[in-house]
Design a protein that fits this description.
Elements: H1 5-13, H2 19-22, E1 29-35, E2 42-47, E3 53-54, E4 58-61, E5 66-69, E6 74-75, E7 79-84, E8 97-99, E9 105-108, E10 116-123, E11 126-134, E12 155-158, E13 170-173, E14 186-195, H3 201-208, E15 213-218, H4 224-235, E16 239-245, H5 254-265, E17 269-273, E18 288-292, E19 296-300, H6 306-311, E20 314-320, H7 322-336, E21 342-344, H8 345-348, E22 370-379, H9 383-392, E23 397-402, H10 416-421, E24 426-431, H11 446-452, E25 460-463, E26 473-477, E27 480-484, H12 490-494, E28 498-504, H13 506-520, E29 533-535, E30 543-547, E31 558-562, E32 571-572, E33 575-579, E34 584-593, E35 596-605, H14 621-641
Length: about 650
């Protein structure tokens, strides 16, 4: 099984050490953290170089007051010191700090306004760094708009050591959030399934069969069959741990409280992630997954509630892999064992009544399994970059089902919707409109997105006409599929705890594509689905066949081919052959049936002829060489600095 090119390149790029940028430079000190919204307000200073620096040479200013150093304070390479007004509050999670007035740190009128301010770092009389946020109008040493206002219980944190003195160097940071890295994926066996067709049977059967331990992290949990299966597991001595969202929309349902009270009574450890005086690591715990024993992981788009299992359209997968399960259990441990925003069920509901649940009988229904490669995806850790790579890598098909899509993305760049619009693949977006009205004044809903993109020649958009909620958050990109809890919204990608998986398997991708086409076709039975196979070696002097016979299109549909990218149709028919003589062929297939037109585009480079021998497309080789060379330079720098 090949690793998807975008996964390999991304994995290499994010592995480049930071000292590639600054080498052996020993004097690279910058502002790295600004904390205005706390009684313990202050700043963090980081030495990004390799050598020690003496902070006595530096000073800070906010335009009115100053922080100076009257004694030597040595800041070693690759380290950070916090300068704070008072001892840090627990949510700040800071240990290496100096209070104003201690160890020669002198503060004279340096106060950070909650609404906005400017912070300057000087070495002697030279201004070396600036940070401007909120409503502050001064821009000395700063380029462009101020960074946003910093919310309570959050930092502004530097993300780039390449200092541009602009907002792009910084991000809002909530202490305690995880910082997991994206892996190259794991070989595994995958059992795909869909809701409501499966009724969640794969989930309930696997939970019922747990032998040692099960960890569940989900937004909602009350499905009777799952609860019964968990009770069965507890009776067999299985360790059951459950982490739930403490503030779901509409509050924690009574059915969930009764179910959790029953499980706790029988020995389960049930906890909620909930705000502690305004501090919470994630806006919402919105994930829907379980890690079972040492080798099974379940991931779904649906909440584990009865209505979700039996009514919603959603996708799920059971993943069999020790390595994958180990990775996801480390994620669970990180979230489950938080100190400030975690409360036990008994703390929140000490007197909740228990319920009675009819025993679940495993169905033993067989669901097909396939071999593939699975890569875990996490929000807010790295889902944005992973989704960008997954969407932009599509060449043939890009099918998306979404409960919601951020409307403002239509007018912005660098987001999932813009990546999809810019794709050359057959792009189709199906949006839920269960709670939308086509005739109200709200234009920023599913109907509004459909209407804004109507007539686009790069993406087809439909609103779901199914008699059920389209609660899915699924993406099919060629022979890969994305399954999980991540809605197409800024909050879901950047602020929630979300979990998804990228599965690389043609069989699994085709499994979900079949259901997507069925869902898409609920609006029109006469639909077009382009499937193209390129047969033969991409070498000069050879003949290849490009076969679209597997496409679905009504009788009488017109298949037209432009094989050289000049906009002129050279061939017609479902299957054509090409005698290769040029280095590149920009091929476009246009399939037309009445008013419906769909395009398939592909650039064929004959230099890709050895792809079966070398499993990475040759066009990615220069990127990989650059990454390897850069890492090598880094190692040489480190050696020279010793």
């Amino acid at each position: 099984m090949r690793m998807f090119p975008f996964l390999l390149v991304l994995f290499l790029v994010i592995s480049i050490p930071l000292d590639v940028v600054d080498g052996c430079e020993s004097d690279y000190v910058r502002l790295s953290v600004v904390i205005p919204t706390s009684q313990s307000e202050g700043v963090g200073i980081t030495n990004y170089g390799n050598g020690d620096v003496n902070l006595k040479e530096y000073r800070l200013s906010d335009g009115e007051g100053t922080i100076t150093f009257t004694k030597s304070i040595i800041l070693s390479g690759r380290s950070t010191i916090f300068l704070l007004k008072s001892a840090p509050e627990p949510w700040m999670m800071i240990d290496n700090y100096i209070q104003y007035g201690d160890k020669g740190v002198v503060c004279k009128g340096f106060l950070l306004r909650d609404t906005g301010d400017d912070v300057y770092l000087y070495k002697g009389e030279q201004l070396i760094d600036t940070f401007v946020y909120g409503d502050e109008s001064n821009r000395n040493g700063w380029d462009g708009d101020a960074f946003q206002k910093i919310p309570k219980k959050c930092y502004a944190k530097r993300t780039s050591i390449i200092d541009t003195d602009t907002s792009k160097d910084w991000e809002i940071f909530t202490p305690g959030r995880s910082d997991f890295s994206m892996t190259g994926g794991y070989e595994c066996e995958i059992t795909p399934f869909v809701f409501p067709d499966s009724k969640g049977i794969p989930v309930k059967d696997v939970v019922y069969g747990t032998t040692s331990r099960i960890d569940i992290s989900t937004y909602l949990l009350s499905e009777p069959g799952v609860i019964s299966s968990l009770l069965h597991a507890l009776s067999d001595g299985v360790i059951v741990r459950i982490l739930l969202e403490g503030s779901p929309a509409g509050g924690i349902p009574l059915s969930e409280r009764i179910a959790m009270s029953t499980l706790v009574y029988h020995g389960a450890d049930v906890r909620f992630i909930i705000s502690d005086d305004g501090y919470k690591r994630y806006n919402f715990l919105h994930s829907k997954y379980a890690v079972i024993d040492e080798d099974i992981t379940i991931i779904t788009s649906e909440n584990w509630a009865e209505s979700s299992f039996n009514n919603n359209r959603g996708w799920g997968a059971v993943i069999s892999s020790n390595e994958y399960a180990h990775y996801m259990r480390s994620v669970f441990e990180s979230d489950f064992n938080g100190n400030l925003d975690i409360r036990s069920f008994k703390e929140l509901f000490p007197k909740e009544r228990r319920g009675t649940f009819e025993g679940y009988i495993p169905s033993n229904e067989l669901f097909p399994s396939y071999h593939g490669r699975a890569t875990p995806i996490l929000s807010p850790d790295f889902s944005f970059s992973a989704m960008k790579g997954f969407i932009t890598s599509a060449n043939e098909r890009l099918f998306v089902e979404q409960l919601e899509v951020e409307y403002d993305w239509l007018d912005e760049d660098n987001n999932p919707l813009s990546w999809m619009i810019g794709s050359k693949a057959d792009c189709r977006l199906l949006i839920d409109t269960t709670f939308d009205s086509e005739f109200d004044s709200d234009e920023k809903d599913g109907f509004g997105i459909r209407d804004r993109l109507k007539g686009s020649d790069t993406i087809a958009v439909r609103t779901s006409a199914m008699d059920r909620m389209l609660h899915n958050k699924g993406i099919i990109s060629d022979d890969g599929v994305w399954i999980g809890s991540i809605n197409w919204s800024n909050t879901s990608i950047h602020d929630n705890r979300e979990v998804a998986v990228i599965i690389e398997s043609k069989e699994v991708s085709d499994f979900f594509a079949k259901y997507f086409i069925d869902d898409w076709g609920t609006e029109s039975a006469d639909d077009i689905v382009i499937t193209v196979d390129v047969i033969g070696e991409l070498k000069n002097g050879r003949t290849i066949v490009i076969d679209a016979s597997g496409s679905y299109a009504p009788n009488g549909s017109l298949f037209e081919w432009d094989i050289d990218g000049d906009g002129v149709i050279e061939r017609t028919g479902r299957k054509i052959s090409i005698d290769l003589s040029d280095s590149t062929y920009d091929i476009t297939l246009r399939v037309t049936d009445g008013d419906e037109t769909y395009l398939w585009k592909r650039t064929l480079d004959i230099s890709d002829a050895d792809m079966d021998v070398f499993p990475i497309p040759l066009k990615y080789i220069p990127i990989i060489i650059i990454c390897i060379a850069t890492a090598t330079v880094s190692l040489l720098h480190r050696w020279k600095c010793k």
